[in-house]
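Format is sequence with structure; example below:
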Amino acid sequence: MSDLYEFGRSEYRVHPKSFRLRRQPTAPDGNSDKAQNRTDLAALVAELSELQTVLAADNRYGLLLVFQAMDAAGKDGTIRAVLSGVNPAGCEVTSFKAPSTTELDHDYMWRIAQAMPPKGHIGVFNRSHYEEVLAVKVMPQYLAAQRLPRAAAAGNALWKERYQSICDFERHWARNGTVILKFFLNVSKAEQAKRLVERIDDKKANWKFSPVDVEMRKKWGDYMHAYEDALRATSTAYAPWYAIPADSKSYMRKTVAEIVVQTLRGLKLKYPNGTTPKPELHKLRALLA
C-alpha cells in the first residue's frame, strides 16, 4: 500500500526492513546550535498556526500525533513547544494512563477510538495504544489484568496479532482522512539519568519524579527490544514512525515541528469557496459600511 499522504521527509523515518534501534542516534550529528534551533522552531510554530486554521476550514482531514518515549525523554515539553501557537479549540491532547476497570472490560483499542480527532482538528496522544505492545509486553502483570481467555495459549504470537490489529486500525483511520504521524523520542540511558537527577535536585520539579522511574531503568534493555519490535512492525506507508534524537531538547522539538509542518503542507489544504454569490456579498458589504 503506497503512502496515502505526502509525509514529512526525514532521515529519522523508520523503515522496517533496515531499522535497528541500537544504530539510531540519540543526539544530532555534530554540534546542535540551540539558539538556531529555537529560532527555527518559532518560525515553524507560526506556520503551524496558519496551517491549523486552513486545516479547520478545509475540514477534510484530521491530524493525529502520537508520542512514545521512555520517562524524561521530553514528551510533555515537546508537545507544549510544538503546539504552543495552535488554537486550543481545535486541538485535543489525550494522555493514556493505566486503564480503568471499565476500559479493561473492553478491548484495548476501545478507549483509543473514542479519542481520535475529528476532521479539521489536531489530536495528540501522549502515550497511546502502543503501550499495549510496550509496557504490557515488558510487564506481564499488565497483561494478566486484561483477563484474556487465550493469552497464555497464544504466547509470542499474541504480540504479532496486536501489531497487526494496530496496523489494521491505523489503515482504517488513514483511509478515512486521519493523517497519522508517530514519534519515538529516542533518549539515551545516560541522558535520562541526568534528567531524573535534575528532577530530584530541583524542588519545583520533584513532582515529576517517581521512584517507579528508577525501577523502569532496570528494564531498559527489555524496553528497547520492545520498542524496536513495535516500530519495525508498525511503521507503515500510511502511519510512519520517526525515531527522533532526544538528548538535545531544542533539536528534538525543531525536528518534530518540521515533520508536522511538512506533512500539513503536503495536504494542499485550501479555504472552501463561500456559498454566497459575489454580487450579494457586495450588497451586504455596502450595508455594513
Q: What stands out?
A: DSSP finds 13 helices and five strands in the chain. The chain has a mean pLDDT of 94. The first strand starts at residue 62 and ends at 69. The two ends are 54 Å apart (CA to CA).
